[in-house]
Specification:
- This protein has 969 residues and is an all-alpha fold.
- The protein contains 42 helices and 4 strands.
- The strands form 2 sheets. It has a two-stranded antiparallel sheet. It has a two-stranded antiparallel ribbon with strand order 3-4.
- Strand 1 and strand 2 form a beta hairpin.
- The chain starts with a helix and ends with a helix.
Length: 969
């Protein structure tokens, strides 16, 4: 401690050491001290000097401090001092007020020390490892130090953390820390970490960041929360902006539904704090990120659908129409990135369901008015703030984007049959703004009305019916004519007030954009415009004059309008045909001069700015000259108008003739294509039917094979029985003597039982004879039918095989029947002998009859009777099997006949289809030859003809189909 007393202010007799000397001694102490307490005290002293002597501590002590982090891991106190010291030398002290030069010098110093620290990537890895320590004195300074490194050198530090094992995961654990100060600083750290790095953004998102951040926002009170909510929202914006993968993950995770409670602001909307306004701005900006026009159309549409289904759009409209909402919530300024009205605009843009809902929203007024009308009232009111009017214009444009239904509803409010004098409509507000004295209102109304006509030919024609009453005693004029009248009046005013720079230029530009959009691709509107004898001279006069810089844009738009009149002219007016208009340009303006004036539009400095994104963003009202959709129209028309002006009448006529001829041929080819397509479908259907029939035929053949197998099994069983009967008959051919003595000793009861059995055998034999005759008739019938099978039918061989099998079975049954008859005869003889008395019923008393012979004869008779019963059962089973086989044969014969009929029908259809295709090929060949002749004529005339592969492709396809049909045949 004596050392520190001498260093830090003890009563020393000698001169006081300088700061650099003191820091050098402290660094030596840190490097050489063996006791942990001494090193800790030295690092604490360096920390206290690090803010005042930032340069000296950074140069001399950085390596020693890093070494402390590596070696003294067991002592959290010295680690905390070392981390705080490194933070002080890397991070600028934001509390000190410095001039610009001093601030720049401090920033350069921080960047220099940061580069020295991250020169070795292991230092960042070491810092990430220290963040796993739960001790507050280590974790909190580590978070602050890593945040300062990211602020100073973001990209290099991001690269190191990205490749560090579990680097991002360790930082995500900070959000789960129970100590709010560490969690809040962890939010700041993740903000810096996720800036501009899509890979890290994806990793953070898949580390469950969305769930944690939304939970923190809810815990902190959502929009009523403090700075922590703002930090969470800024981090969410970093993760989602320009990151389609994270946006999809956010939507699929049902996190959009959790955003809805943010906008439940309640009825008391007065006196919002600045923090709440900031939070709501960021929340609205987060919604816009999900539905931004720069996202892929599919992803935007999916998010718009989710926002409508969960009620988020309804909640935003409630805020939009609520009374007492601060004005800056409804507008967008350079300070805030997003507001309610612009958010609603992008949520409904291009979504028919959302647009329909927005059209049904009413403002809480008496009487209730549609939200669109209330917004338009603000747009055409010159007293409203400029940013509010721009936001309303964007909302109206998004409402009409790809919404033909909405366009029709807006135009309908201008038609005479739908005008309601007792209410204010959108059409009336647009007309009022179009003809007001405020140039900004003129421009906004003209652009809004142009969006009601965008890509909608029906509404362009409907708007021609609109008539306006200019003054009492004068007839009404059309809206189209009134726009041209205002143009000419604006030109006169501009000539009288040349000293006022840019007078009425904004109004004239807006009206010219409206007229160009209106008559574009609408020949009827072109005819109405040219019908007024003053319009064409006015345009040519505007284009031909040499005016100042501010009037060049008006000249370019006039040239565009005149070019549209040429390109979409149907030559219905004799005085203003295409040819006469081009001659007028050549005489009064000059073709080269005309094209040069047309090019003034795209060369204007505000043209490219307007074409960047759909939302109109202007710093001042004077910059509102171009609309985003109009820039697309200029790109589309500039080239075709230039070509149309330079073409001669003969070239144009030839081109029209060739175009008509090609259109006719294209129509014919299209018809043939459709016909061939239909026939291909029919052929495919027939092929499928043939395949089905073939499959059924195969199944039937399999069934027949199974039946044949069963017949073979029955045959085998029959042969076995036959062999058994043969052996038994051979054994009974020579019966032993003495059987007569046995019969004489039989009881009368046994004889009557034998008679009953013989009678039953007679009945069965008669039944078998009847069935056998029936089977013979059936076999003869099948034989006669199978002798003449149909051509190509598979039934002939099958019937012949079945007949052979049945004939063999029949012979076997007959053999068995004969054997049964023989047994019957033997039994009858035995009974006859008993009845006639040829065998004496009384015992003869002959003692020579052996008792063993009697027993043997008796057992043989019983066995014979049992065998007869068994044979009867076998004969009955064979008869039933044969009947089943005959039934299956009849069913198979019927199915084969049906298949033969279907096959003959399919063959006929295929022949007819081939004939029709041959006819079509002949017609296509003729058409091909005609088209080739026409192309050759065009080439001879000097025209460039693009090669068309459609006919070749069609012929190749037809040839392939024909080859497939031949292969199938």
């Amino acid at each position: 401690m004596n050392f520190f007393r001498g260093v830090m202010g003890g009563q020393a007799a000698g001169p006081q050491p300088s700061g650099a000397d003191t820091i050098q001694k402290l660094c030596d102490r840190v490097a050489s001290s063996t006791l942990l307490e001494d090193r800790r005290d030295a690092v604490r002293a360096l920390k206290s000097l690090s803010k005042k002597y930032r340069m000296e501590v950074g140069v001399q002590a950085m390596d020693h401090l890093i070494n402390i982090l590596q070696t003294d891991r067991s002592d959290s106190e010295i680690l905390g001092y070392a981390l705080d010291t490194l933070y002080n030398i890397i991070c600028n002290d934001e509390e000190e007020e410095q001039d610009e030069a001093s601030q720049k010098q401090a920033d350069d110093l921080g960047a220099k020390f940061t580069e020295a620290f991250i020169q070795n990537a292991e230092h960042i890895t070491l810092l990430l490892t220290l963040l796993e320590e739960f001790d507050f004195h280590v974790r909190w300074p580590g978070v602050k130090l890593l945040t300062a490194l990211l602020k100073s050198q973001c990209v290099p530090v991001q690269s190191i953390i990205l490749v560090s094992p579990m680097g991002v995961s360790r930082l995500m654990d900070l959000l789960a820390d129970s100590r709010e100060v560490i969690r809040n600083d962890g939010l700041l750290l993740l903000q810096q970490l996720t800036k501009g790095n899509a890979a890290i953004q994806k990793i953070v998102a898949f580390e469950n960041a969305f769930e944690r951040l939304l939970d923190i926002i809810t815990e902190e009170g959502s929009s009523d929360g403090g700075i922590v909510v703002e930090d969470c929202l800024l981090l969410l914006l970093n993760l989602l902006k320009n990151n389609s993968s994270n946006q999809n993950f956010f939507k699929e995770g049902s996190f959009i539904q959790r955003m809805r409670p943010w906008f439940e602001v309640g009825d008391d909307n007065s006196g919002w704090s600045a923090q709440k306004v900031t939070n709501l701005h960021l929340m609205l900006q987060l919604v816009r990120v999900m539905v931004s026009p720069v996202n892929s159309p599919g992803a935007t549409a999916s998010c718009q659908k989710s926002m409508f289904q969960c009620g988020l759009l309804q909640q935003l409209c409630t805020i939009l129409m609520a009374t007492g909402v601060p004005a800056d919530i409804l507008t967008e300024s350079s300070v805030h990135a997003s507001q309610t009205i612009n958010t609603v605009s992008e949520v409904i843009r291009g979504s028919q369901v959302n647009q329909d809902y927005f059209a049904s929203v009413n403002a809480p007024s008496n009487p209730p008015r549609p939200a669109i009308v209330v917004l338009l009232m603000s747009m055409v009111n010159e007293r409203q703030p400029f940013v509010l009017r721009c936001a309303v214009l964007y909302c109206f444009q998004c409402f009409l984007y790809k919404n033909q239904k909405g366009q029709g509803e807006i135009v309908a409010t201008l038609l005479p049959s739908t005008i309601d004098a007792n209410s204010i409509s959108a059409g009336q507000l647009l007309c009022g703004g179009l003809f007001s004295a405020d140039s900004l209102s003129n421009w906004c109304a003209a652009v809004a009305l142009a969006h009601a006509l965008q890509d909608n030919l029906i509404q362009k024609e409907q708007l021609l019916r609109v008539q306006l009453a200019t003054s009492l005693g004068k007839p009404p004029v059309s809206l189209l004519q009134q726009c041209t009248n205002i143009l000419s009046q604006g030109d006169k005013i501009s000539r009288r007030t040349k000293s006022e720079k840019g007078s009425k230029v904004q109004t004239r530009v807006g009206l010219l954009m409206l007229l160009c959009t209106w008559i574009n691709n609408c020949p009827i509107a072109v005819t109405h415009f040219l019908h007024n004898q003053e319009n064409v001279p006015f345009l040519t006069a505007q284009i031909s004059e040499n005016l100042g810089e501010d009037e060049r844009l008006v000249q370019g738009l006039c040239a565009l309008l005149l070019g549209i009149c040429i390109y979409y002219n149907d030559n219905s007016l004799e005085n203003y045909t295409k040819e006469k208009l081009k001659q007028l340009i050549e005489k009064r303006i000059g073709k080269e001069n005309f094209v040069e004036k047309l090019g003034f539009i795209t060369k204007h400095e505000l043209y490219s700015r307007a074409g960047q994104k759909p939302q109109p963003v202007f710093l001042s009202p004077e910059q509102m000259l171009f609309d985003h959709e109009f820039t697309k129209l200029v790109k589309e028309l500039e080239g075709v108008i230039t070509k149309a002006v330079h073409k001669s009448s003969e070239e144009e006529k030839k081109e029209e003739e060739v175009k008509k001829t090609l259109e006719q041929h294209d129509n014919i080819v299209t018809q043939y294509k459709e016909l061939i397509r239909e026939q291909d479908a029919k052929i495919q259907e027939l092929k499928e039917q043939v395949a089905t029939m073939t499959s059924q035929n195969e199944e039937m053949q399999t069934t027949v094979a199974q039946q044949l197998s069963q017949i073979q099994q029955h045959k085998d069983q029959y042969n076995i029985l036959k062999l058994k009967l043969g052996k038994e008959n051979q054994g009974q051919a020579n019966p032993p003597q003495g059987d007569g003595s046995h019969v004489n000793g039989m009881q009368t009861e046994e004889v009557s039982q034998l008679r009953e059995e013989m009678e039953e055998l007679r009945n069965q034999y008669a039944l078998l004879q009847t069935q056998l005759r029936d089977k013979e008739v059936l076999i003869e019938t099948l034989r006669s039918e199978g002798s003449e099978p149909a051509e190509g039918a598979p039934a002939g061989p099958i019937n012949t095989e079945l007949l052979k099998e049945l004939e063999l079975l029949r012979s076997q049954v007959q053999t068995q029947t004969a054997e049964i008859s023989q047994l019957k005869t033997e039994n009858q003889d035995l009974l006859k002998r008993v009845e006639t008395g040829s065998i004496d019923a009384t015992p003869s008393g002959d003692a020579s009859v052996d008792a063993s012979n009697m027993a043997e004869l008796e057992s043989r008779l019983a066995a014979q009777t049992s065998e007869i019963g068994r044979l009867k059962e076998e004969v009955r089973g064979l008869t039933q099997g044969r009947a089943h086989l005959e039934q299956q044969e009849a069913s198979a014969t019927s199915s084969v006949a049906i298949l033969q009929t279907e096959k003959a029908k399919l063959q006929t259809d295929l022949q007819e289809s081939k004939k029709e295709q041959d006819d079509l090929l002949m017609l296509l060949a003729d058409q091909d030859q005609k088209i080739l002749n026409l192309k050759q004529r065009l080439k001879d005339l000097g025209h460039t003809v693009e090669e068309d592969d459609d006919l070749d492709t069609m012929r190749d396809q037809t040839d392939e189909d024909e080859e497939e049909d031949e292969d199938e045949d």
